User: Fold Protein kinase domain-containing protein from Oryza meridionalis.
Amino acid sequence: MLILSRVNHENIVKLVGCCLQFDVPILVYEFVPNKTLYNLIHIQIDPSIRTLEIRLKVAAESAEALAYLHSSLDHLIILHGDVKSTNILLSNNFIAKVSDFGCSKIRTADEKYDMVKGTMGYLDPEYLRNFQLTDKSDVYNFGVVLLELLTRRTPLSVDKVSLASIFQEAMREGHFLELIDTEILHEDNMGLISDLATLASRCLIMTSESRPTMSTVAEELRRSLALTSSAANTSEHFTGEPSTGYYSLKGVAPMSIEFAR
Assistant:
């Protein structure tokens, strides 16, 4: 509550209120109708609603939200602590809403941290060694989310193998394109895919000081989104229906009721 009461950003889920009539306080958030980024990537089956442009849009907006949290609001820095695809909600017109601040911390710029909770497959290796959460820990988490968007693979395989480690090895050996989701891999966007893969790889560098800041990540994603938008404006394909939270799609295969619910 303390964190969410301090933030005001279009891409961060809004806290509406708190109910104290139960043993545990119940937080009430704005209604976000289109489930999670995880659902978009891994569960729903219609590729027409997870184009590269839509994936980039969600990534750029999520990065903007995290950069905002790291921007020293009222001389405080907010660390999310558990950035993952299930914590990025999707509102009308695929507007990203970063959510779930249960692992978040507020600190001043020079404060050290104790260990906090997180999710295996996303956790910063440096954080696991020294138990100190930093803004670069969020950058690592976000790098894994970028990999999900690029590969449509889960952060951990069935055998508990890390997607980040597989991807970084593929980048070193020069065959990362074998991991990219075939839905978005086309001859006309190979340069863009390569740039996004390089950005993800930089976010996943083992030494946190060598990773970019979230503001740098957001800026690079904005530029990439501008390139894709010039070729195809995703807003032409969607019209939100505020009364129900459902979408209509023009010239695109219908979205399943399960996804839009």
Observations:
- The chain has one domain: 34-260.
- Residues 34-260 form a domain with the Transferase(Phosphotransferase); domain 1 fold (CATH 1.10.510.10).
